[in-house]
Amino acid sequence: MGKKNPCQSIIKGIDALVQLGIFICVCILCSLSSKEPFKSHIIGDINNYFYESSISTDKQCICSNFTFNHTCTEEELNQGCEDISLDKLKINRSFLRKLVSDSFCDDMHDSFVRNKDKKISYLFDLNYGLIRKFSITLLVLTLSNIPLTILFIFIFKCSKTCAIFITLLAILVWIARIVISILLFYNIENGDIQKYDDFLDCKNVKTKYFDKFSDITKLRKCFLAFAVFSIISEVLGKLGELCEIPDDD
């Protein structure tokens, strides 16, 4: 086995801090996902969520010699009406991005109107149930590093079979952490957290009202911090191996 040098000791010290950061992030994820914020909130007065001018007037529907400040309905399209925004899309790409944004905001406004008296979780499926399960599993796997580290300290005092078993167990825990981390990332990104963030960017949304649900964005930021710490830990592990000094023959 290679000899240790000061570089390796510094790397291990930094990695210990990184592991602490990982542990804290996982604990926060477990805490934030313990209660879905939208589960008990019922959609009430639409004016609680939007300012009065909620519908965009950038899109116009042309029917014969008449122009209407809204996108064409299916019935209007069947009657030969034409959505003027379709022509603008070919001319101005910046308008395309704006139109998509406005369309999303208008759709969200309509969704709130149509689903009044329903739970707001009907509009935003955040996958909190799965996120909670994977966060707890990740916490257990993270905590398992402590007994494994203690076992590694005495690894050379036990039999060869024992040493192989401990090494294999550590590898399995490492693989499990990666798999669970990927599943956690998938469920966070596959849910409607990004949709909710985009919704808050709509100019006619009363964002102050939604400050009570700030834990939703905190959860995503916390996971990103966890992912960054995990990548740093892997890099430090490789650097630690490079810092090993080979045994002299």
Mean of residue pLDDT values: 77
Distance between the termini: 12 Å
Order of helices and strands: HEEHEHHHHHHH
Q: Strand percentage, roughly?
A: under 5%
Count of DSSP H/I helices = 9
Secondary-structure content class: mainly alpha
Helical amount: 55-70%
Q: What characteristic shape results from the CA principal axes?
A: elongated
Round the Cα radius of gyration to an integer and report it.
27 Å
What spatial order of strands do you see in the largest sheet? 2-1-3
Largest sheet: 3 strands, antiparallel
* Low-pLDDT regions: 86-100
Number of strands: 3
What is the structure about, briefly put?
The protein is mostly helical.
Top keywords for this entry?
249 residues, mainly alpha
Describe this structure in words.
With 249 residues, the chain is mostly helical. The chain has a domain at 1-41 and 126-249. 62% of the residues lie in helices and 3% in strands. The protein has helices at residues 6-32, 74-78, 84-91, 93-114, 128-143, 145-153, 160-190, 193-200, 215-242, and strands spanning 61-63, 66-68, 82-83. It has a three-stranded antiparallel β-sheet with strand order 2-1-3. A hairpin with a 2-residue loop joins strand 1 and strand 2 (66-68). Helix 1 runs antiparallel to helix 5 and helix 3 (84-91) runs antiparallel to helix 4 (93-114). The longest helix has 31 residues, at 160-190. The radius of gyration is 27 Å and the shape is elongated. Mean pLDDT is 77; it is low at 86-100.
